[in-house]
Amino acid sequence: MGKDKQIQSLFQRVCYENDIQAYNELYIALCARLIHFSASIVSSFHLAEEIVSDVFITLWQKRNDLSHVDNPVVYLYVSTKNLSLNTLAQQKKHQHRSLDHINLDMLSIAPDAENGMVSAEVAQKIEKAIRSLPTRCQLIFRLIKHDGLSYREVAILLNISTKTVDAQLTIAVKKISQVIRFDLSNEIVQSFLRIDS
């Protein structure tokens, strides 16, 4: 069973069967991704953990009203985004924050060095190339490449078109491949940068 199908199944068991075990498994499957995403907005892993915990508490409280949700991953990302932005607004009453002021260091996840696909040195070069991207471009790349969201899911989450997602990813892949093409074989570059829509 694919990861998305597994998450869909867990979500349905929570909503239809009040299954606490499925709820715990759903939390384990998504919490790290959601915490990194929230931390990129609120600039605090501690606060992000509280936010994601609150998102899941709310999910459990509203579970009987959520059977209409088609895509639980997008639902939970959007819930996390909204609660993160609301938390920031409460903390900084007069400062309006949006995803344009995102802290991308919190999203930093070194690419596949731990899997032995690339050396730590090359992983650092890749991370540096990713960080050199414009904010929105970098966020889109990380959500798709690291968090495994689809173009459509990212488009919904960020309130942009799938064409914009595609255009931003094209920019990201081009810039990153220029930086790392001298360090890696073309095959590894293509493998690392391959993104399925």
Automatic annotation (TrEMBL):
Belongs to the sigma-70 factor family. ECF subfamily. One of its GO terms (molecular function) is DNA binding. SUPFAM superfamilies: Sigma2 domain of RNA polymerase sigma factors (SSF88946), Sigma3 and sigma4 domains of RNA polymerase sigma factors (SSF88659). This is RNA polymerase sigma-70 factor (ECF subfamily). Keywords: Sigma factor, Transcription, Transcription regulation. It comes from Chitinophaga dinghuensis. Residues 124-176 form the RNA polymerase sigma factor 70 region 4 type domain. One of its GO terms (biological process) is DNA-templated transcription initiation. Residues 33-93 form the RNA polymerase sigma-70 region domain. InterPro entries: RNA_pol_sigma-70-like, RNA_pol_sigma-70_dom, RNA_pol_sigma70_bacteroid, RNA_pol_sigma70_r2, RNA_pol_sigma70_r4_t2, RNA_pol_sigma_r2, RNA_pol_sigma_r3/r4-like, WH-like_DNA-bd_sf.
